[in-house]
Each structure stands twice: as C-alpha cells, then as structure tokens.
Amino acid sequence: MSVKVIIEPGRAEKNYWRDLWVFRELFYILSWRDIKVRYKQTVIGAAWSILRPLLTTLIFTVVFNKVAKLGAPPQYPYIILVFTGMLPWNFFSTALSEASNSLIGNTNLISKVYFPRMIIPASSIITSLVDFAVSFGILVVMMIYYQVIPSGNVWMLPFFIVLSLLASLGIGLYITALNVKYRDFRYIIPFVVQIGLYVTPVGFSSSIVPEKWRIWYSINPMVGVVDGFRWCIIGDPLYIPGFILSISVTAFFLVLGIWYFRKTEKSFADNI
User: Fold this and answer.
1) Which of 33, 15, 35 is CA-nearest to residue 114?
2) Distance, CA of 67 to CA of 214 (rounded, Å)
C-alpha cells in the first residue's frame, strides 16, 4: 500500500505519533535489514548469539561459584542462576549498544527523507529480541538437562520481557540523542555496559546484598528485571520494594528518553 505524506509547517509535530504508525513498513524493513546484517561476513554467523551468553555464563559460574564460593539454592544448579540473569542483561546491553549508534549508522537516510527518527533506534532494539529468543532456547535445554522444573510464576515472564524492552528503549533513546551531538558517548557506552554487568545481579543473587543497601541497589532498573526473570523461571523470592523502585526508574528513563529525543530530533540532520 502506497503512503502519501505531505510535508507542511508544523505537520511533524502534530502528526508525529500517527506517522509512527504510517511508517510501520519502514520499521519492519529496517528491523529485517538489521537482523540480516548482524552476523554477516562472520565465520560462525548466528552461532555467536549462542556462544556469547554461554561463555560468559561459564566464566561467571567459575568466578562466583567456584572461586568466590557463592552458592545457589539446592533446587537448581548455579549455572541456571547465572543464565537466567544473563538473558535479560544480554538483551538490555545489546539493545543499548545497537540503539546508541543507530542514528550515526543511518546518516544518509536521516539527511535525505522525512520520517519519525524514533523508528531507527526502536528497530535496532527489536532486532536484539532475536538473540534473546535464541538464548531462551538454550535456557530451556539447560533446564531439561539439569531437570529444573519452571516456577509457577512463569506466566508473568512476558511482563518482564516488556519491562526489559522499555528499560532499554528509554535509556537507549536518551543516549542515542546525546550521541548525535556528543560523540564521546560512543566510547562511554561500552564502558558503562561493562561496568553494568558487574553491578547488576547477573553472576549472583541480589539477596546477598545487605538489607540496608538493597533498596538503593534497586535504583539500577535492571536489578528489578533480573530478579523478576528469576522469580518467573526458577522461583527466587522477589524483593517487592526494590521491584517497585526499578519499575519507577524505568518509567522515569522512558519519559526522559522520549522527551529528550523529541526535543533534539529536529537538529539530527544538521549535527550528523
């Protein structure tokens, strides 16, 4: 179906959210393009989406379980604890990294035609769901191998997947807009992602954090997401005050990200 868009003064402001729907086909095309080129010209291709979380999980299991002697409840092995934390973290970190560079990587598109620019970082985040789906399949195989029965809360898992997506979208939009003007962020983001891996309860359970610090620890929005994944999949207790705080911080960054992206969007073509 062909779509005719008439460019007139103030139109983009009035019809922005409607245009997001009108240009949905462009969203599908960019998402599919990103999926196809993600592992293009790599030797092992899509197998990277399996190897990366597996190798990181094995390293974390050795470091935190064998060296640091952090144990897991007797009903499941430590590697399952790590992998259930690795799933949402990998999705968040990959989505954030891809989104932060998405506008810079589509300079020609942005400078030549009109469309809501939010489509570009949003499509790059959606493609990270492919890696997530592959990693989730690995978790299912691991749970069958170790004979771990899923928790009765597993029906809530889609909620936490959406929460993880919103956390990456909010922070991703904010960082993406900043990266257009200040290219320092292309160096800052990998550093933040690396540090974030160790301050998020991926290699350990957040229950080991002292009670008096746990609410402050939950300011990291991925703490609530990771805890929620474990609550859904292996039945770990969910720290409700921290979970509510993580949701609040996610909502704050989502509003901030959309607001700042919309505020600076008109100058993207000039700054790029």
Assistant:
1) 15
2) 24
Burial pattern 103-124, b for ≥16 Cβ within 10 A else e, equals: bbebeeebeeeebbbbbbbbbb
CA distance 61 to 79: 6
For residue 39, give every residue at least 6 positions away whose Cβ sits within 8 Å of its Cβ, in sequence order, or none.
45, 46, 48, 49
Backbone angles phi, psi at 213, to 5 degrees: -100, -10
CB 131 within 8 A of CB 91: yes
pLDDT, tens only, 123-171:
888 778 888 888 899 999 999 999 988 888 899 999 999 999 999 999 9
Angle formed at CA 167 by CA 117 and CA 156, multiple of 5 degrees: 125
> HSE of 156 in the Cβ direction (CA atoms, 13 Å)?
16
Structure token digits, residue 143 = 């749970």
From residue 267, give the alpha-carbon distance in Å to each of 67, 97, 103, 117, 181.
Answer: 51, 22, 12, 11, 9
Alpha carbon 149 to chain centroid, angstroms: 26
> Looking up tokens 């990294």, which residue turns up?
97
Environment class of 40 (CB within 10 Å of its CB; exposed 0-12, middle 13-18, buried 19+): exposed
Count of C-beta atoms within a 10 Å radius of residue 49: 22
pTM above 0.70, yes or no: yes
199 touches 220 (CB < 8 A): yes
Q: Which amino acid is at 191?
A: F
Alpha-carbon torsion angle 214, 215, 218, 223, nearest 10:
40
Residue 259 has, within 13 A of its CA and on its CB side, a CA count of: 6
CA torsion sign for 182, 162, 211, 61 is negative
Token pair for residue 167?
Answer: 């956390």
